[in-house]
Amino acid sequence: MSNFQHGVSDSIRSQTLAAAVAAAARTRRYGSWYVAEHRFRVMRSYTQTVLFTAVGSPLVYLYAMGVGLASLVDGNLGNDAVTGVSYLAFLAPALLASSAIAVAAEEFTYPIMLGFKWNPTFFGMNASSIQPGQIINGIVISVAARMLLTCTIFYIFMLAFGAVPGALGFVAVLVALLTGLAFGALVMAYTATLKDDTGQLAMVQRFVILPMTLFSGTFFPLDVLPPYLHWIGWISPLWHGTELSRVFAYGLPEPIWLSLVHVLYLAALLTIGWIWARRITVRRLNK
Amino acid sequence: MPAPVIATQNLVKSYPVKNSKDFVAVDGISFEVAPGESFGLLGPNGAGKSTTMRMIGAVSTRTSGDLDVLGLDPNRYGPEIRSQLGVVPQENNLDLELKVRENLLVYGRYFGLPRARVARRADELLEFAQLADKAGAKVDDLSGGMKRRLTIARALINDPRILLLDEPTTGLDPQARHILWDRLFRLKEQGTTLLLTTHYMDEAEQLCDRLVVVDKGRIMAEGSPADLIRRYSSREVLEVRFGSTQNAEVAGRIQGYGERVDVLPDRILVYSDSGEYELERMSAAGLHPITSLVRRASLEDVFLRLTGRNLIE
User: Fold this and answer.
1) Do A20 and B66 count as a contact with CB atoms less than 8 A apart?
2) CA B129 to chain centroid
3) B84 to chain A: which residues are within 8 Å by CB?
């Protein structure tokens, strides 16, 4: 409480304080969820897009790549040529992780630009009892929910295509979620730094996400590339996610320490991106 | 006087500027607002009014000075203070992706209010804002005045003790402004404390019990509109135009008229208790303005007197 007096008696002060503390208590505790509630309401206005991409992309990609391309690969190299399994089994966990990245690329970019700039709803939230960090938390919660939905549907299609030999295959859904959020948190933080979108987000799509998808062991193992390109995989959250997905989907042989590195690396990116995004948001909203 | 709901003392907000001195937006402002009072910050664009509002709204950290909102320090009790405020920002930040009523529902939830209560309150407020028939409309399809009323309705969703209005009617046509003023009057009658910024003197005169005139981050004067006019202006003002090339020359010949003479680029103002009398004096001296107007003194004149500049430049 400030130290200057205006004849405000202590009892009135403590009454006001008690009332205000009570009024803000729920938001202090659940504010992040209220922001998520807002995002869900907004997502409802594009439910069709959410469902269409969730159902459409596994159909298209699993069929075109996993069945079409696979017949070519398996036909030429044999049924267990790629890391010991069929091409479809090799590819499907990678596509699952990519589908999480696709959700991240959408939900962690434009909604952030929108909230800060195009339709500055973040400033509106911040004028209520919501705190800046809760805005970021709420967005992460809502995107995680959409990602989980998308990945689960993807996984169901994988099962339908017979692309999951391993018994622990469903864990790949959680790995995909972690992958998408780890990458997405960084993208969210980067987007939060943008005052204007003068093409940066399209650049991210073209020069980060697309190359990342191509060079993360998605369509072919990283070993196939010349050694001087392997670093792309090592820094790529998608490579770490894909490899880990494969461990669970069909038991890709990999030392346990490497699996651990995958988890830790992804968790670290998620933490860094999340904290960074919160900091930027605190700074941008406190003008 | 009951305990003030807002008290500022030597409030300062400055922003760092690269390779230069800090920019001081608010430069030592002190005032108090009593419960139920309607208090205004009147000043031109860039005077530091919005910055002051943001500090009071507990979304902008002060650089120095003391600030008390409902007896609480915003640095420590941000969410608590904001739970008791309604904020109408200068730029509408209604959610364009949601419908009119949804904007209220979502906003009520930010305060942790139960869904049923928010829904009931939303319907009351749509009535109050005369938007009941627009409940399902897209925000983008509303007129400027309707958007403003919706923003006010949104600010009332948590039954705030203080309503902060930053330039509530800027950009609205006269009819929309009057509808809005009427709504604000009703709130005032119900005992809501209003704190508003404006650069319209008529708005300040209509809505404010008391106000401070702000310029370049500092308070130039404080009082009720009538009080300020009495203190810093004559009862009436005679405005005469002799044509832009003649004004300066004529001004030299009428020095000593009334209490004071001000020469503006397009007209001359003569401050006097009787404008008609000064006009007659002018004619008697053989000076015949192209146009002349006698009016009651306003806050515009107070501002001109205090700063040497117009409110709207």
Assistant:
1) no
2) 20
3) 19-20, 23
Q: Which two tokens stand for residue A122?
A: 């973040």
Using an 8 Å CB-CB cutoff, list chain A residues near B106. 37-38, 41
Which of B73, B77, B107 shows the shortest C-beta gap to A128?
Answer: B107
For chain B, the structural domain boundaries read 6-224, 234-297
Q: Are A188 and A278 in contact (CB under 8 A)?
A: no
User: Do residues B211 and B42 touch, judged by C-beta distance below 8 A?
Assistant: yes
Residue ranges of the domains in chain A? Answer: 26-285
Sequence letter at residue B312: I
pTM value? 0.92
pLDDT tens digit sequence for A262-287: 999 999 999 999 999 999 999 999 98
B230-283 pLDDT, tens digit each: 999 999 999 999 987 888 888 888 888 999 898 888 899 999 999 999 999 999
Nearest to A123 among B68, B93, B110 (CB): B93
Which site among A34, A128, A137 would you substitute to test the B interface, given the most B Cβ atoms closer than 10 Å to its Cβ? A128
A2 band by pLDDT with thresholds 50, 70 and 90: very low
C-alpha angle A57-A61-A65 in degrees, rounded to nearest 5: 180
Q: How far apart are CA B274 and CA A263, in angstroms?
A: 84
A128 close to B (CB below 8 A): yes
Spatial separation of the C-alpha atoms in residues A120 and B151, rounded to whole Å: 13
CA B292, B294, B300, B304 dihedral sign is positive
For residues B78 and B248, is the Cβ–Cβ distance under 8 A?
A: no
Asked if residue A129 lies in contact with residue B157, where contact means CB atoms within 8 angstroms, the answer is no
Looking at the structure, give the CATH architecture of the domain made up of residues B6-224.
Answer: 3-Layer(aba) Sandwich (3.40)
Q: Using CA atoms, how far apart are residues A110 and A81, in angstroms rounded to an integer?
A: 41
Q: Return d(Cα A231, Cα A86) in angstroms, integer.
A: 26
Task: Give kind and range of the element (H or E) at residue B270.
Answer: strand B268-272
Which one is predicted more confidently, B219 or A74?
B219
Q: Alpha-carbon dihedral of residues A202, A207, A208, A210, nearest 10 degrees?
A: 90
CATH number of this structure's domain B234-297, picked from the four choices 3.30.70, 1.10.150, 1.10.287, 1.10.510: 3.30.70
Instruction: Point out the residue among A1, A42, A128 whose CB comes nearest to the CB of B72.
Output: A1
List, in sequence order, every residue forming a beta bridge with B229; answer none if it has no partner: none
DSSP symbol at A228: G
In whole angstroms, how large is the CA radius of gyration of chain A?
23
Question: How buried is A226 (Cβ within 10 angstroms: 0-12 exposed, 13-18 middle, 19+ buried)?
Answer: exposed
